[in-house]
Design brief:
Length: 289
């Protein structure tokens, strides 16, 4: 377990400490000779749990996938950003590179966009359902994934049922959503990647540190990787850097295997994208004895 924070004792008394903002490295760029996985875009609009919503999703299947061996699974919230080839995360490029190098098991990924609801009147704007889906406590979004979207998205694919091989990922509201999914169903997802997670009082998520601490006698089987920017938001809903540090402290207290990477920058996907290869390597590394 590792918590990186600014060490004021190492700074000049005349200068303020500032953490670096990580930059994209070789694992986030296409490499010669590395086979590219297949990405298929689809749409889903038949939800009962989030009635009236529609959304796009993408399924990534690596070239190394074979139906005779179960693949690992990663589910990305705000999937359109993560799947974008020239975006801040370039997740499919990262997966191609790590799988080819043997640093990540053969892994299928599903990139899910938040739902949208059409306007109630002609010409009215489409309404996003993102905050309701991502920031809400409880198991509603977890059930949406488990009961509705993933059975369709993964149809015909051989996916491991071992939660240690299944990860849920998100940033900002998607970051707290990722934690909620695994918290509600650790039997389905044993790995969490939360970047600049909104563990604040948007829809009650600020209570998580207290809930985590209460599981000290029997921690849930989760491995959690977090990233937060030192200059992230401080507003009516809370202070993002303090909220993420509070989460990390709670996870440490309760005995969870976790990592918090404090970086420069604020409420941006730049640092999270650059650190995605390291995060995935850490999350899927062999469990410590």
């Amino acid at each position: 377990m590792r918590l990186r924070i600014p060490l004021l004792l190492l700074c000049s008394p005349f200068l303020a400490c500032a953490l670096e903002i990580p930059q994209l490295g070789p694992d986030s760029r296409p490499q010669t000779g590395v086979p590219q996985g297949e990405v298929t875009k689809k749409a889903f609009s038949e939800s009962r749990i989030f009635a009236g919503t529609s959304r796009d999703y993408w399924v990534y299947v690596p070239k190394q996938y074979t139906a005779d061996k179960p693949a690992n699974l990663i589910v990305f919230q705000d999937g359109g950003g993560y799947v974008k080839a020239d975006g801040s995360s370039r997740a499919t490029v990262v997966l191609d590179n790590l799988i080819e190098k043997g640093e990540l098991p053969v892994t299928v990924a599903v990139f899910v966009s938040p739902g949208t609801i059409p306007g109630s009147k002609p010409g009215a704007a489409t309404r996003s359902n993102r905050s309701f889906e991502y920031d809400s406590m409880g198991d509603r979004y977890t059930r949406f994934l488990a009961e509705e979207l993933l059975p369709e998205a993964l149809s015909g694919l051989n996916i491991t049922q071992d939660p240690a091989g299944r990860c849920v990922v998100g940033s900002s509201s998607g970051g707290i959503c990722a934690f909620t999914v695994a918290w509600e169903r650790p039997d389905l997802f044993g790995r969490v990647l939360s970047s600049i997670g909104s563990f604040t009082n948007i829809r009650g998520g600020f209570v998580y540190p207290a809930l985590v601490r209460k599981t000290k006698a029997a921690p849930k089987p989760l491995r959690v990787w977090m990233q937060e920017g030192e200059s992230d938001v401080n507003n009516l809903f809370g202070h993002w850097p303090l909220a993420n540090q509070d989460m990390a402290a709670a996870l440490q207290f309760a005995g969870y295997e976790h990592h918090l990477e404090m970086t420069g920058g604020g409420h941006s996907g730049q640092a999270a994208g650059a650190l995605l290869p390291d995060a995935l390597r850490w999350l899927f590394a062999a469990a410590k004895p």
